[in-house]
Amino acid sequence: MHPVAKAGFALDKAGMDKADCCVLVLPSGRSAHLEAGYMAGEGKPVFTLVLEPCEPELMSLLLGPPGHICAGMNELFNRLGCP
What we know:
Number of helices: 3
Strand order of the largest sheet: 1-2-3
Radius of gyration: 14 Å
């Protein structure tokens, strides 16, 4: 693995390990789904934010309860308990 890729991975992984939760913003790339799966596997809540119409992703239910799927920023902030 290239040293730049190694360093980038280490930074991203450290950030995930320190995070309290994950927000998967759809549509997104493959890495984002791997990161969300890792976070779910670590027992951290994963919220899926859908900002534009897209094909439903049925397997996102593996990341948490249906209530963790948010259709906008206000809904996400409410679910996160932000004032």
